[in-house]
Amino acid sequence: MNHQRGEPIAFYYGTNQVDRLAAFGRVVLQGDAYSEQDIASLVVRGVRPLCYLSLTEDVGPPAEWQRDDRNPDWGGRFIHVGHPGWSEHVLNQARAMRRLGYRGFFLDTLNIELTYPDDLPHLLTLIAAIRELSYPDYLLANRGFGLLPQIADLVDGVLFESFTSRWVEGGYAPWPPDVLDVHARYAEMLLGLDVEVFALDYADTPRLAEYARERAARFGMPCFVSIRDLSIVPAQDS
């Protein structure tokens, strides 16, 4: 069921804030940041909570599926996606979060087409396994442009993270015009597929935030604007 509330979607990686999150149709949360009771409270208010899942990076203890290299921004180790131990690790996470009450998953770290292109088929296989495990729960993919168009058959929605603006050293800024043009072409491609499409942008001023929302609206994409670590829930107009 597609719940429509005051705002379509929120991304929040902090704790508490259940009452504010109830203003959204869907909310993406860190899996263990909320109790079973909190998640149930959101569900009974018509909110669909989605649990964050990283599919190509691991912030956990050393494991045989990890590569030596790390993500320089967030510190997680990159993964051999086709390793059977990694697949089972992710699916076990998904099973545990479904038991906790989550009604879907946000699939992150999908953009490996330039770093580990040989892993793309394994990544599609993993997403298909999550789809089979979680059906009919909602699956939202973050970008994943290297998996197009096949990924559209496996997920319900695609998020275009950093569609208009991004965080830079010391603050936030819009992308330069050439990048905005490339993003526009990807957006048009996504909108031609049978998936819902959302935008997530980063800003620290009302002017930049409004620019991001207005640009996303021109492509028919609901846009959530936050800061880099997704640690705030903007107050909604009553």
Automatic annotation (TrEMBL):
PANTHER family: PELA
Entries under InterPro entries matching the protein: Aldolase_TIM (IPR013785), GH (IPR017853)
Organism: Kibdelosporangium philippinense
UniProt name for this protein: Endo alpha-1,4 polygalactosaminidase
Gene3D superfamilies referenced in this protein's UniProt entry, alphabetically: Aldolase class I (3.20.20.70)
Highest taxon in the source lineage: Bacteria
